[in-house]
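Chapter review: from sequence to fold.
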Amino acid sequence: MKKLFPIYLQLRDRTVVVIGAGRVAERRLRRLLDTEATIRVVAPQATPAIEEWDRKGRIALARRPFEPSDLDGAQLAFLCVGDPALNARVHEAADERGVLLNDAEVASRADFHVPAVASREEVQIAVSTGGTDPSLAAKIRDVLNEWLASPEGVRIAESRAHGSDLDASEPAAPRVSIVGAGPGDPGLLTLRALDRLERADVVYYDRLVGPAILERIPGRVELVYVGKDLGRAHRANIGELLIRSSQEGLRVVRLKGGDPGLFGRLGEELIALARAGVDFEIVPGVSSLLAGPAAAGFPITYRELSNQVVIRSGHLAGDPPRSGASQRSDTTWVYFMAVGRLAEIVASLEREGVSRDTPVAVIERGSLPEQRVVTSDLASIVDRARDAEIEAPALVVVGDVVRFSNLEALANEIETATDEDRGSFAEAGGASEAEAPSPQRMEAPWTV
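The token string follows.
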């Protein structure tokens, strides 16, 4: 095979034509948009992202079949369709006009190839196998990205022709990263989560990942929504999407709200990836289990009020209890996906023997600027949440730690515990003064 001539093109104000407007074309366009080229796209139908770029004037979309005259005045063209007859027409038109053409379907017919690119700030390193092995090019790119991620990476890349200082002690990230997005506040993303998002080629995300998180993802990255909306039965086969994208040589991120291992169908995706032999990693995230109550101003445990936490799904609210947790007054219950079944949750807890004056908090959009918290007791929380028009996503916390929502009253109660109570407790159990008995439950309702 003849050697290709590597080159970086200045495309500002030059005309580039893209034939096709599907997912492959969208990936090409994400990189072209940064070049300030004049971009024309020709296709009868387009993806939502391409439609949006057209509305914003970043490209010119012609919603019709290709005509040879579409290549008039173009310097480059990208063919991103799988119709052999149409492809032949495009190649003929490009040859007649001397337009360099990239063919996404048949690498051997392409005038040039799109390389895998490792980048950091202004540094770009292109890797090509002449179109023969995109997966190998992607693996090399990943190693280079790991190098560029180090604090000295950019300086080394600019000053040395070879990566002689490449630190091989840190292995390249696996092909698929299942990443926890945290509770919603982008400031609670982990450093590793940010790193994986910055390096991704495609990110599959669900409805619990809000706009503030998505805005942190570079514009070149393809974003694909795969969430199951409320009231809709359709749900994408996410495992299949992850496998297919990884086999195409793409760096894939599956982005889940909170921590990926908590009520997030993580197991299904892990099994699918493992059976397909796809290398993957799990990047933990800050879970709403801890972040929700903390953002609302109280801890999930407190030695004198809560010594165990029971985590439940609101979808299983009607199921019989599986433990004796409800028989203990020092239990905190945390329910996920629970707003729509709050009445069933209350009824289930009452059947378990939980007192109707137990404090309850419903935390809507915890950690976000629009966070709202409604507190009451078990007997009144359904009415309080309904009156406040609480909506998903929201977390339900049941237990005495909710008393921290009235921190001043709780602190005063703890501080004024009588010496007699403390002494009696110490005689009975030998505990220190710091382990004084739990104060009695405060009067309901608990409202904020």
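Two observations follow directly from the output. The first strand starts at residue 15 and ends at 19. The longest helix spans residues 134-149.
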